[in-house]
């Protein structure tokens, strides 16, 4: 498969470099993203009005793609607000404090619970469910909110999603593209997922503790559901609070049972949790505020949506730019500029694969880099079919290692694009924990790169 890179590809790559440099330096990227969208639009359409309109349309596209996540975060925040004001949240988390007594126990405990949940339902519903309940416990025992976000993010969007052993969406895509049985790719991925997960999470925890000890840790907090003043608390009787503290977790546990029984995944699972949160919000608000319940329900929802859009606002421009690397480009600017293309980021992955010589070491390194490149659109899944095809081509040239190379590309693509490095993809964990998604991405960067390097070395020996 031969791909000829055009000016569009090189300009897109240049702007990626600018954006990543600004993220590392903790500078705002909105202006560069808008300039990138405008420049790409101008190259594609040769029209000033088309490129200017493309800026707005790309924002609309990104918002539509992110809307489900914005809504679930907003609703969970609205529900959390009334639970905090009534003291129900305090009653819910009290039993958990006996299990998560130290920052280390909180980090690894939250991570393992997130891993188990994400294997069955994918990470986004798990983040909303686990974060709302366990974050207050973690903060109370000394784990920073950013540390809790890292644990949920690395174990859920990293380990669980990259292996995807229960739902099997990822290995099915890569295996089909590579012409292999799904079971072969899953078996080959086991040692790689273990190495990637262990190295990355241990590195992340060690770096966190090191920076906390030296005073260099920055939690990157943003506005979140604030703890109320004592005078602002809504008085409920102790029996009522205790009863609701039992009923609410039971309702979410019932959601989990329904997800298992009906095999609800992804957006369907998120919708079930979101709907349950709305029901809880309404029920508790009507019970707590009585005659003012109708008005207060609307007030809590407004507060939740204000929070959601305030958190997502800075992310929409950068998401709009990176979505242009995939299907959004043709939809916004027409397909004439990229005829025969598989999307800008996928084209760059293919071009890289075509530019290197073939042996086990080079094949492994190239699959890791190619997987990471295809993950730059923030999906994690959009490019892994391409990775499977490239792994098939490489393994034919090398003479072995088809399943290992396929699994390696899958892991790299999902760890980068599925929600550990791309800021808008990791927003669920960041928003629930009240931290900056950009700070979370920066904090994840070094551990994930260390993990990818270690996993690639292991793959070289397995190929």
Automatic annotation (TrEMBL):
Keyword Membrane: yes
Entry keyword annotation includes Transmembrane: yes
Transmembrane segments: 6-24, 31-60, 66-84, 105-122, 128-147, 154-171, 183-208, 243-263, 269-288, 300-324, 421-438, 445-462
Keyword annotations from UniProtKB, A to Z: Membrane, Transmembrane, Transmembrane helix
Name by which UniProt lists this protein: Transporter
């Amino acid at each position: 498969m031969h791909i000829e890179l055009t000016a569009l590809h090189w300009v897109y790559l240049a702007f990626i470099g600018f954006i990543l440099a600004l993220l590392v330096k903790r500078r705002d990227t909105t202006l560069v993203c808008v300039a990138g969208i405008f420049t790409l639009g101008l190259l594609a359409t040769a029209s000033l009005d088309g490129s200017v309109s493309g800026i707005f349309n790309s924002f609309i596209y990104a918002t539509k793609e992110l809307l489900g996540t914005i809504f679930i975060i907003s609703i969970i925040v609205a529900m959390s607000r009334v639970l905090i004001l009534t003291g129900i949240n305090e009653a819910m988390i009290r039993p958990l404090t006996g299990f998560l007594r130290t920052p280390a126990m909180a980090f690894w405990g939250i991570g393992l619970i997130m891993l188990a949940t994400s294997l069955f339902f994918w990470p986004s519903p798990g983040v909303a469910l686990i974060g709302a309940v366990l974050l207050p416990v973690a903060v109370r025992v000394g784990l920073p909110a950013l540390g809790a976000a890292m644990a949920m993010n690395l174990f859920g969007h990293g380990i669980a999603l990259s292996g995807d052993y229960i739902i099997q969406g990822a290995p099915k895509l890569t295996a089909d593209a590579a012409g292999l049985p799904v079971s072969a790719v899953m078996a080959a991925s086991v040692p790689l997922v273990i190495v990637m997960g262990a190295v990355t999470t241990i590195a992340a925890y060690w770096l966190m503790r090191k920076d906390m000890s030296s005073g260099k840790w920055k939690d990157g907090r943003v506005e979140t559901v604030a703890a109320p003043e004592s005078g602002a608390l809504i008085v409920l009787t102790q029996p009522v609070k205790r009863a609701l503290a039992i009923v609410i977790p039971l309702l979410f546990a019932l959601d989990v049972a329904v997800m298992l029984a009906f095999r609800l995944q992804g957006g369907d699972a998120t919708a079930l949790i979101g709907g349950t949160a709305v029901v809880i919000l309404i029920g508790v608000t009507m019970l707590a505020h009585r005659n003012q319940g109708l008005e207060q329900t609307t007030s809590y929802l407004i507060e939740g949506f204000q929070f959601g859009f305030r958190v997502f606002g800075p992310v929409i421009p950068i998401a709009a730019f990176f979505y242009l690397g995939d299907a959004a480009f043709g939809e916004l600017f027409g397909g004439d500029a990229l005829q025969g293309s598989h999307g800008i980021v996928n084209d760059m992955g293919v071009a890289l694969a075509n530019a290197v010589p073939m042996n086990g070491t080079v094949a492994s390194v190239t699959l890791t880099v190619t997987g990471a490149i295809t993950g730059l659109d923030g999906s994690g899944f959009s490019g892994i079919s391409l990775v499977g095809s490239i792994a098939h081509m490489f393994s034919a040239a090398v003479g072995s290692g088809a399943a290992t190379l396929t699994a390696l590309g899958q892991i790299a693509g999902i760890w980068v694009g599925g929600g550990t490095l791309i800021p808008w993809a990791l927003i669920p964990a960041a928003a629930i924990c009240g931290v900056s998604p950009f700070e979370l991405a920066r904090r994840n960067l070094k551990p994930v790169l260390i993990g990818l390097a270690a996993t690639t070395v292991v793959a070289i020996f397995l190929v």
